[in-house]
């Protein structure tokens, strides 16, 4: 069954190579679904206003910082095996070895990942995901999407997120009884990110003249910077608050 799931995930990735739509003429922002995306964006804003932001405020106010950091570290550590898989698929064997050492250090000396002892030791996080793998394989970026509950994506990134869920070895090491712990830690990390980035996200969502256009620009610039696909990106474009907010829960 596990081998079947992996094969299905890889097949989905290969399908994504041809499935991502492309514009007839090169454009900086390809958003053919803007009308639907704006409706989804408004839905996400309402969810944030009514549920996510209040829950994040409660979590950040009531839960001590060391506990929040430990949960976030634990969640991030569970995502490293999936990162290693993508390193190998991209042929980045040095990064695969680096992330493997990071995982071993944090899983042992870091008490299951509750403490990040690897970064001070020179093994900082080197991220990789299947959307990045698809880019390395030559898949087009595809159209911009604003996905209900999960926010900004491209078609390529969304396909990558789905495959990452299936490919992460953690899903096969731990049984279903641990699923609530794994995904609970991911959800808590989302709340922590929303709390820490509260002022920045509030400014984007509720104080900008066009929050949809601003969020779209931030996401695309940051994602292209990560993939080294933007010739104009500078260090200031490497920050995207929504990458932290929505990215973590997909990595489990």
Relevant terms:
252 residues; mainly alpha; two-stranded antiparallel ribbon; 11 helices; 2 strands
How would you portray this structure in words?
The protein has helices spanning 2-19, 34-62, 65-89, 93-108, 130-137, 155-167, 170-173, 179-196, 198-207, 211-226, 241-247; strands at 144-147, 151-154. The radius of gyration is 18 Å and the shape is globular. Helices cover 65% and strands 3% of the residues. The protein has one domain. A two-stranded antiparallel ribbon has the order 1-2.
Tell me the number of strands.
2
State the low-pLDDT regions, or none. Answer: 230-240, 246-252
Shape: globular
- Content of β-strand: under 5%
Mean pLDDT: 85
* Integer count of domains: 1
Major beta sheet summary: 2 strands, antiparallel
Helix content: 55-70%
Order of helices and strands: HHHHHEEHHHHHH
Number of helices: 11
Q: How large is the radius of gyration?
A: 18 Å
Which structural class should the secondary elements be placed in? mainly alpha
Distance between the termini: 19 Å
Strand order of the largest sheet: 1-2
């Amino acid at each position: 069954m596990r081998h079947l799931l992996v094969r299905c995930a890889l097949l989905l990735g290969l399908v994504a190579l041809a499935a991502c739509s492309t514009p007839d003429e090169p454009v900086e922002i390809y958003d053919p679904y803007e009308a639907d995306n704006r409706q989804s964006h408004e839905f996400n804003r309402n969810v944030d206003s009514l549920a996510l932001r209040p829950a994040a405020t409660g979590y950040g106010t009531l839960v001590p910082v060391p506990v929040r950091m430990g949960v976030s570290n634990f969640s991030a550590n569970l995502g490293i095996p999936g990162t290693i898989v993508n390193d190998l698929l991209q042929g980045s064997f040095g990064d695969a070895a680096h992330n493997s050492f990071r995982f071993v250090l944090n899983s042992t000396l870091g008490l299951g990942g509750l403490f990040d002892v690897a970064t001070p030791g020179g093994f900082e996080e080197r991220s990789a995901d299947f959307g990045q793998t698809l880019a390395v394989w030559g898949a087009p970026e595809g159209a911009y999407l604003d996905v209900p509950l999960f926010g900004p994506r491209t078609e390529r990134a969304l396909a990558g997120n789905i495959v990452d869920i299936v490919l992460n070895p953690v899903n096969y090491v731990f049984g279903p009884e641990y699923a609530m712990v794994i995904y609970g830690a991911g959800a808590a990390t989302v709340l922590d990110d929303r709390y820490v980035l509260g002022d920045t996200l509030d400014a984007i969502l509720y104080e900008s003249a066009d929050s949809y256009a601003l969020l779209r620009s931030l996401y695309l610039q940051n994602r292209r910077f990560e993939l080294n696909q933007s010739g104009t990106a500078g260090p200031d474009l490497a920050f995207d608050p929504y990458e932290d907010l929505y990215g973590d829960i997909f990595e489990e």
